[in-house]
Hints:
The protein has about 400 residues and is α/β, with parallel strands linked by helices. It contains 14 helices and 13 strands.
Amino acid sequence: MHIGFVIYGSLDTLSGGYLYDRMVVEELKRLGHEVQVIGLPSGSYLKRLWLGFSPGLCRRLQAGRFDVLIQDELCHPSLFLVNRRLKRQDGDPATPLLVALIHHILSDEPRPPWQNMLLSLAERRFLASVDGFIHNSETTRRVVASLVKHNRPQVVAYPAGDRFERPESPGSPLSTEIIGKRARRPGPLQLLFLGNVISRKGLLPFLQALAGIHREVWHLSIVGGLDFDSNYTAKTRQLVRQLGLSESVRFLGPLQEAELVEVLKTSHVFCMPYAYEGFGIAILEAMAFGLPGIGCRNGAAGETISHGVNGFLLAEADLAGLELLLVQMHKDREELLRLALGARATYLGHPTWQESIAAIDNFLRRLKDSRDQEKLFGPTRKPGTSGPGNSDATG
């Protein structure tokens, strides 16, 4: 198939969402598809909306003569009007199938309700304009269903944690023995915050919660981009100074894979207790290295973290609850080891990137075959009933 893949900016951007997009593109190419990435200019939400009024964008997408257009759902401000124009040409053989790839729903993020209501106006129209959905989690699937009632084909294809050399492979330094030595290593718990410094990741409340915990219990490494929201980054640095945490918190910025692997090997706990996640690839990648996770009950972290088995979940407003968890793991290193082995077991039982994207490949092929059959023989089902691919398959 000839597939167009619409994103903002570049696939090389360092974030979990762009990692997912990049892995999908690379694996679909390996499976024999011709994939063309269409990078739209980013900017403020208003600039993204304005781009959707440009007739040039519609012509650009039509000119590609794609069989399928996979559209990163976060591009919805620029696409909800364009998709309507594309649909007007539905009888044209050059009209592509429109498939939304959903990392998380923007209007579901923590913010004042009136702001999310405004954001949902364009987001709902975009979701109503596509022919099918690729969800990265059951959480995103449920949120989409709450915004747009539909019977369109969809698939849940979970992200994976195996982009690094598989830690459980023969000769791995992360054997049960090594994980045990790390867990029992004396000193503060080495906490890892792995995500770009933006409001949705909840770093400010996390720092406030840590300020009330004795410094002998923890040390925090923050790995992720610092320039996605410069104002928010400035606030976090200022808060670190105000709370007197400078000796216990280090900002490492974005790291290359080899550097990140070293941090993962030496950390004790993945800790992002107040982050809203559509899935949270970083959680699973940390579990690959035997790091139990502390995540937020709001969002999809609970699809990876099982409370008390491989980590813990906190309510987004529960700042006091973090102390109990960290002190418990700091004092009881055998409990920390149990959680670490539970985390690694979760990773080992999770689909690989190859397996998840094979599910996407199968979904796209079935979707195209269904449309091709309808063009030849007419509709094969009554409007509103399930069609091929609408099986909520998981990768």
